[in-house]
């Protein structure tokens, strides 16, 4: 279990509601629509670039030979797609500047 809380859709909607002042239901719909736009773009093969935050793109992974760690037997891993997340330079800088808390170690 993680020692850090997870940010949910509802949490995002509440944070937006507190900043903007619109109804909670409106902000929840906004969050859902933004996330759906991101998902739709990725599913269609596009890339998503959110300035000062991150880039998302779908990567094609080729078939390869892997190994079952328990038995050592070679197995064929099928080709697949995965989503890559690349934080922006600004995001990396902000994360690196965070103080390390004793509970993080």
Descriptive overview:
This protein has 105 residues and is α+β, with helices and mostly antiparallel strands. The chain has 2 domains: 8-44; 56-98, no CATH class. Helices cover 38% and strands 27% of the residues. It has helices at residues 9-20, 24-43, 89-96, and strands at 47-50, 54-61, 64-67, 74-77, 80-87. The strands form 2 sheets. It has a 3-stranded antiparallel β-sheet. The chain has a two-stranded antiparallel ribbon with strand order 3-4. β1 and β2 (54-61) form a beta hairpin. α1 (9-20) packs across α2 (24-43). The mean pLDDT is 92.
What are the main properties of this structure?
3 helices, two-stranded antiparallel ribbon, three-stranded antiparallel sheet, 105 residues, single chain
Strand order of the largest sheet: 1-2-5
Q: Which parts are unreliable, with pLDDT below 50 for 5 consecutive residues or more?
A: none
Q: Strand pairing plus helix content: what structural class?
A: alpha+beta
* Secondary-structure element series: HHEEEEEH
Radius of gyration computed on alpha carbons? 19 Å
Shape label:
extended
* Count of extended strands: 5
Mean pLDDT across residues = 92
| Major pleated sheet | 3 strands, antiparallel
Strand content: 25-35%
How many domains in all? 2
Helix content: 25-40%
Number of contiguous helices: 3
Distance between the termini: 15 Å
Could you give a quick summary of the protein structure above?
The chain has 105 residues and is of the alpha+beta class. It is built from three helices and five strands; from the N terminus they run ααβββββα. It folds into two domains: 8-44; 56-98, no CATH class.
């Amino acid at each position: 279990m993680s020692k850090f809380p997870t940010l949910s859709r509802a949490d995002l909607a509440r944070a937006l509601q507190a900043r903007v002042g619109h109804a909670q239901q409106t902000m929840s719909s906004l969050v859902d629509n933004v996330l759906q736009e991101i998902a739709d773009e990725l599913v269609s093969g596009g890339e998503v670039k959110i300035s000062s935050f991150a880039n998302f793109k779908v990567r094609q992974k080729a078939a390869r030979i892997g190994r079952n760690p328990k038995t050592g037997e070679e197995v064929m891993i099928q080709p697949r797609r995965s989503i890559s997340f690349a934080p922006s330079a600004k995001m990396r800088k902000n994360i690196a500047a965070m103080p390390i808390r004793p509970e993080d170690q």
